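@channel sequence for tomorrow's demo:
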Amino acid sequence: MDIKMNGKIKHIILVLSFLWMMPSLSHAQIDPTLTAMILEYTHKAKSQYNSQLEVMAVETEGHVWLKQEVEATKNYQEQFDRYISTFRGIISYAAQVYGFYYEINHLAENMGRLSHQIGDTPVNAIAVALHNHRNDIYVDIINQSIGIVNTIRQVCIDTKMTEKQRIELVFSIRPQLQQMNRKLAMLTKLVRCTTMAQVWYGIEQRSLPHREGKAGIVEECLGMWRVNGRSVKPRR
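structure tokens (generated this afternoon):
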């Protein structure tokens, strides 16, 4: 009997401690600041998603790019940077006000590494967006961040939820942030390794006849190896 009672007491203390750490969850109200941030984010997410689809369509067609397509590709990365900054603002605000501290520091570090890598190799960032087999990473990050913001919106703004539902959603944010961190780390690696030469090689390969079977695979691998070799800078 004492063991069961102690277990119940520990459970109650754990729940009360959790609610004490996040007092705003116990009295959920519409937060005008967070609401405005989410509205701005939603607008930018839609714009960024459409922009990514346009860039992917340019690469898919593989023709001589028009002036407006070149300009759209050039401005694409700036839009993505602003989009990520808006997402980081929402996460940081929610962490301070509502106690979402899970993976936040790691997320900020990954965003910093990504920004630094894009600053070092901006053309490579555009190359990733144009690469036929690698540009899905941008869409994945957009979809992942939309899911996280939607969860935050439900937890912080939806006043019709029960406390149990609210706590379950709070605990679901951490694995979502972990997945986002993995995507950002992968994008950083792709920006470091992807070049425009690889993009042009892919366009060229799709427009030329290929040998079938193992000979075709070997030929394609050798061609890609040559392209990658030209972009390698030897260490001094």
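heads up for whoever presents: The chain has two domains: 27-194, 197-236.
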